[in-house]
Design goal:
The structure is a single chain. This protein is an alpha+beta fold. The protein has 6 helices and 5 strands; from the N terminus they run ααβααβαβαββ. Strands 1, 2, 3, 4 and 5 form a 5-stranded antiparallel β-sheet that branches. The two termini are about 20 Å apart. The relative contact order is 0.22. The structure holds flavin mononucleotide.
Length: about 210
């Protein structure tokens, strides 16, 4: 990365990206509506195929509704046996992550906001296969980065297919909209910090693999 910044450019976004860790513990403090609106503004500035903007964001602040979703998630993960006892994991990094995951899905409603991004009537690109998400996930990433910029924690989670009936009935999500993630949002009770990734050279293939 060059260390001088040309006029009109800013490198602040690299710092945000490098410290936008998965946050799985939240303070109970409410998130102001104006801040949430800025996050959705950021999300909805993303690109989409043919600029169809095939998205909707269901923002759940209502405690009863959040608890219903949280209970559905807890039941789902218990039924799948996905919440492994962290003390059985030897690797300390994986053990800490599982502690976070168990804490999150045991009490998803601890976060004061749950956001459900939905893909709506997507026709460009074709709504099937691997590219189906390409008109919604850029907007989700915008949202996650904007949250980091606001000092808010999030973690991308994708258990929505396992709780689809609950999401549709509790939140009146119509048939043409498909939830694509379930994102808790709140002021973090765990620190932001550098993400743990392989060196960039691992992933680069100049002029061919
Ligand atoms: C598609 C996707 C699905 C994910 N699903 C979950 C999930 O179900 N539960 C969870 O706790 N974290 C989930 N995560 C968060 C990742 O586990 C996390 O981002 C990754 O371990 C790297 O950690 P970091 O973001 O703190 O650097 C998901 C992330 C992505 C991109």
């Amino acid at each position: 990365m060059p260390d001088t910044v040309p006029a009109g450019a800013t490198h602040a976004i690299y710092e945000l990206m490098n410290t936008q860790r998965a946050i799985r513990r939240f303070k109970p403090d409410a998130v102001p509506e104006a801040v949430i609106e800025r996050l959705i503004f950021a999300a909805t500035r993303a690109a989409s195929g043919s600029n169809l903007q095939p998205w909707a964001f269901v923002i759940v602040t209502d405690e009863r509704k959040r608890k219903t979703i949280a209970e559905a998630l807890k039941s789902l993960f218990e039924a799948r046996g996905a919440l492994v006892d962290p003390s059985t994991i030897e690797d300390p990094v994986r053990r800490r992550m599982m502690q976070g995951v168990v804490g999150l899905f045991s009490n998803f409603a601890q976060a004061p906001v749950t956001i459900i991004p939905c893909l709506v009537n997507a026709t460009s690109p074709a709504p099937d296969g691997l590219v189906a998400g390409s008109s919604i996930y850029p907007s989700v990433q915008n949202l996650l980065l904007a949250a980091r910029a606001e000092g808010l924690g999030t973690v991308m989670t994708t258990p929505q297919t396992g709780i689809m009936d609950t999401l549709r009935s509790e939140l009146d999500i119509p048939a043409e909209a498909t939830p694509v993630a379930v994102i808790p949002l709140g002021y973090p009770a765990a620190p932001f910090g550098p993400v743990n990734r392989h060196p960039v050279a691992t992933f680069m293939h100049w002029n061919g693999w």
